[in-house]
Amino acid sequence: MPQPITWKRRLKNLLFIDIKTVAGEPSLLSVEPRLQRQWEEKSRYFKGDDDLSAASWYDRRASFFAEFGKIICIGVGGLFFDDADLPHLKVKLISNDDEVALLQEFVTIINRYPPGELTLCAHNGKEFDFPYLCRRLMVNGLPLPHALQISGKKPWEIPHKDTLEQWQFGDKRHFVPLDLLAAVLNIPTRPLEWTGDRTSEVYYREHDWTRIEQYARDSMVMLAQVYLKMVGAPLVADEHIVLSD
C-alpha cells in the first residue's frame, strides 16, 4: 500500500464538485426571441445521424451551453479521515429552481477557504463545470469567487483537478464518461441512471427532484472514488458516505 503521506497531500483542501444543468427554458418557443434566433443559427452546425429541428436540438443539447442553459443542482463533496486513516466522504447537494440563490449558496461554501488554498476537482471540470459556473455567475451578475478566477491564467497556475484530464494522459481527443471510467477501474459504485442530456427532460416534464438529487449524489460518490483510485488512496466505504443537509 502507498505511504499515506503520498496521497494525503493530494487531498488537502480538496472539494469535489459536479453540476447538473438543464435548458434555460422548457422549450425553444419559451426562449427570448433574440436568444432563440441565436440558437437556431447555432443548431445548424450540429452534426449527427438525426435530422432534428432547432427545437429538438434545444431539448437535447441546450443544457450543455451556459448561454442557453442553467444550473439546477451542484454536488459538493469533502473528505475527512478517521484515526485509522480511512476516508469519509461528506456530500452536500445544493438544488434550487432559483439559480441565483443556488450559486450564492455554492459561493458561500467555497469562500470559507482562504484565497489560494482550495482545490476543486470535477470530471471534465476544466472544459465544462468550472467555465460553466463562471459563465452562469457572470450572467446572473454575481462576482467570481477567488477559486474561480481562472480566466487568462496559464494551465500550471490553476490548481484544480480534472479526472478526465488525468485519464487522457495528454490525449485531448479522448473523452471517457465518468461511469465508464469507474467501470474500467473496477470501482464498485452505483451506475448513473441517465446521461446529462436527459436531465432537462426529468426536470421540466417530471420535475422529479428526488431522481435528480439521487443522480447528483451518485455522480459525486463516483467522482470521489475515481479520484481516490487514481491517486492510490483507499476508497470510501459505503458506511462512511454521509449526505449533509
Q: Would you write up a description of this structure?
A:
The chain has 245 residues and is an alpha/beta fold. The chain has one domain: Nucleotidyltransferase, domain 5, CATH 3.30.420. The chain has helices spanning 4-8, 33-43, 54-61, 99-110, 125-139, 163-168, 178-184, 199-206, 209-230, and strands at residues 14-23, 69-81, 87-95, 119-122, 161-162, 241-244. A six-stranded mixed β-sheet has the order 5-4-1-2-3-6. Helix 5 links the parallel strand 4 and strand 5. The model has no long low-confidence stretch (mean pLDDT 91).
Tag the structure with descriptive keywords:
245 residues, six-stranded mixed β-sheet, 17% strand, alpha/beta, Nucleotidyltransferase, domain 5
Structural class: alpha/beta
Strand residue content: 15-25%
Can you give the mean pLDDT? 91
CATH fold node name: Nucleotidyltransferase, domain 5
What number of domains? 1
Instruction: Report the biggest beta sheet as strand number plus sense, adding barrel if it closes.
Output: 6 strands, mixed
SSE order, one letter for each helix or strand? HEHHEEHEHEHHHHE
Q: What form results from the Cα inertia axes?
A: globular
Distance N to C terminus: 34 Å
Instruction: Quickly count the helices.
Output: 9
Q: In order across it, which strands form the biggest sheet?
A: 5-4-1-2-3-6
